[in-house]
Amino acid sequence: MSELYPVPERLLKDPKPYIATFDEYKKLWQESVDKPAEFFAKAAKEYLHWDKPFQTTMAGDFLSGNIAWFLEGELNASYNCVDRHAFATPDKVAIIHEGDDPKDVRKITYNDLLQQVCRIANVLKSLDVRKGDNVIIYMPMIPEAMVAMLACTRIGAVHSVVFAGFSADSLYDRIVDCEARVVITADEGKRGGKFVATKRIVDEALSKGIHAVDRVIVCKHTGTDVAMTLNRDLWWHEQSENARPFCPTVPVNAEDPLFLLYTSGSTGTPKGVLHTTGGYLLEAAMTVKYIFDYHPEDIYACTADLGWITGHTYILYGPLCLGATTVLFESTPTYPDPSRFWNMVDKHKVTQFYTAPTAIRALQRLGDEWVEKCDLSSLRVIGSVGEPINPEAWKWYYEKVGHSQCAVVDTYWQTETGSIVISPLPGATPTKPGSATFPFFGIQPVILEPTTGEVLQGNGVTGVLAISKPWPSMARTVYNNHYRYMDTYLKPYPGYYFTGDGATRDNDGYIFINGRVDDVINVSGHRLSTAEIESALILNSDVSEAAVIAGFDDLTGQCIHAFCTLKPSVTSDPEQLMKELVLQVRKTIGPFAKPKAIYVVMDLPKTRSGKILRRVLRKIVNNEHDQIGDTSTMADEGIIHHLIAMFNRHNANIRK
Ligand code: 7RM
Q: Best substitution site from 305, 387, 529 to test ligand 1's pocket, by max atoms within 8 Å of Cβ?
């Protein structure tokens, strides 16, 4: 399909990669899928400290949806990520915090981290948080957010981190769904020199209605004045100072929950994806080691937000479980200028750098001079995640950032998979721009014919992507809704885990991910459901119906186009209304969900039975007006001309 890039020379020495040839990868992969129990039992003993050994390596299957790994085993995530390294390498830097202002750098050793985690764990205990309790974390990208997560795991509590870009409404929904009693937050966030009123958003969420929250722990970050509610709000620093820097870890069962993370599906309500402790932690660590070829002296940086799964697995759990130095980046790719990423790499001598295609495209556009003036020679592996990376951006990343001497790892995975499932291995896999290449150990991907579910054998096939066997880090359930878990992932193609993505296996066996086949939109790697955005739009009392579809955008990959019809009585100024609708979505979901375009139309394309034909809308926004296809089932074909006219008028206005 496209040209093949051999493994760069640089990868083969200093240090030698763990897997140095493609044959070695194939042999190990085969072993991992032929004898998964042996393979992962051995790995689990090697990577993790167990307080009590496991007996049953794997149990359950996709048909019954009762997957379990390392049963009877007991361990503690905080012990595995902090204590054992604090004993072995107390002065090694665990976290390099690169603050929003590049001058603000904080280095936290494993020993410091242990003490901070212990103190906050004791604070949580003093508030009666116990094993199995859910704690909401709504924080900016500061080390205290990682401390809060680890403090929960230390006492067996379950964290649910909510991305700080979510609005008060979204935060409220998550607080209610997981029945949290405690929220951990900060006074303000800071990104790209702008301030985010984090604590105020928490207050707004908590004032919305009924919930169980009776304690809010507030970390001072910018030091701005915030309102503290009496008998509810507590300062992090005051509590922490008064707490003992020692707190024993609570061993939990391998299948006890480690965290919940809400993610968008194809309905209006986000689901709380639940990950358990043993399997998740194991593969978080293994994938960092193999896919980033992580070695003990490395400085590893992932620019994701802790509020998304990539932050959980590849800033916190994976690197810290291996005792690595992990960079926590608070800022944006272009603040104070477009050299920010590369200055950071240069400053800390970063060896692995992991970011999103949307950031790569934005920086590519701004010109090569920003990257050329920085010394990037420390880099060995550069990664991409969150959406398909277009070959142009891939090549720019490879050539300009990697100087054709780094491995580009295009890593495919999902909130639900817990860790990377398809990716090259730096020292072993020849790459192709735009391809996530081959499965990680233990993963058996299949491409299915979408309607029949038949397995498409051999190469040169396109269909939907599924996985045939359970793997340790997969999500176990949707919080309080196991039916939804079954319906979304395990029922569509019985016997398989369904990813929701389309994929092609080319003639050389390389896997290319083609994007979502369900109603999920991926804007800059942020997952949104069309139904969620539609529900937000119809909250506006002028709107009668809304249909949301994905368009293409050079920068963000996909973007949101919304079509709305109004109630007959509405006389509002259309310009004004559109502004209100954009605001409505920002308020209901969060600023990152802002539609790119809203069209107020007379009617939506529908079938005679009243189903909205989103396919027709997709063709219109993607300028395929002549390829609308079969319209014979439509209630009113005439509407198409009207929709095209509205679309053209909108674009003409934008150009003006
Ligand atoms: C890690 C993450 C998951 C969805 C997934 C895909 C898309 C992620 C890639 C990708 C093509 C990639 N979790 N996706 N990585 N598509 N190539 N390397 O992003 O739950 O937020 O999103 O993202 O559609 O289903 S997520």
A: 387
Query: What CATH topology corresponds to 520-655?
Result: GMP Synthetase; Chain A, domain 3 (3.30.300)
Of ligand 1's listed atoms, the one at least distance from the Cα of 423 is 18
206 CB near ligand 1 (under 6 Å): no
Q: Residue 385 C-alpha to ligand 1 middle, in angstroms? A: 7
- pLDDT score, position 325: 98
Helix (H) / strand (E) element for 22: namely: helix 22-34
Distance 556 CA to ligand 1 centre (A): 13
Report d(CA 528, CA 351) in Å as an integer.
Answer: 32
Task: Work out which ligand 1 atom sits closest to the CA atom of 516.
Answer: 24
Q: Is 513 in the pocket of ligand 1 (CB under 6 A)?
A: yes
What are the pLDDT digits (tens) for 468-506? 999 999 999 999 999 999 999 999 999 999 999 999 999
* Nearest ligand 1 atom to alpha carbon 422: 18
- What residue owns the CA closest to ligand 1's atom 23? 386
Q: What is the DSSP string of 289-358?
A: HHHTT--TT-EEEE-S-TTSHHHIIIIIIHHHHTT-EEEEE-S-TTSSSTTHHHHHHHHHT-SEEEE-HH
Q: What is the pLDDT of residues 26-77, one digit of tens each?
A: 999 999 999 999 999 999 999 999 999 999 999 999 999 999 999 999 999 9
User: Which of residues 631 and 454 earns the better pLDDT score?
Assistant: 454
Q: Using the structure block, give the residue that is written with the tokens 């019985």.
A: 494
Q: Is the pLDDT of residue 624 over 80?
A: yes
Rounded to 5 degrees, φ, ψ at 464 are -100, 150
The pLDDT of residue 213 is above 60? yes
Query: Is there an atom of ligand 1 within 6 Å of 500 CB?
Result: yes
Beta-carbon count within 10 A of 213 CB: 18
Q: Is the CB of 422 under 6 A from ligand 1?
A: no
Tell me the whole-structure pTM to 2 decimals.
0.93
* Rounded Cα gap, residues 485 and 521, in angstroms: 19
> Is 520-655 in the same CATH topology as 9-442?
no
Q: Is 315 exposed, middle or buried (0-12, 13-18, 19+ CB in 10 A)?
A: buried
In whole angstroms, how far apart are CA 440 and each of 4, 162, 425, 458, 648? 20, 28, 9, 19, 46
Superfamily the domain 9-442 falls into: ANL, N-terminal domain (3.40.50.12780)
The domain segmentation of the chain, as residue ranges, is: 9-442, 520-655
- Confidence band, pLDDT 50/70/90 cuts, at residue 656: low
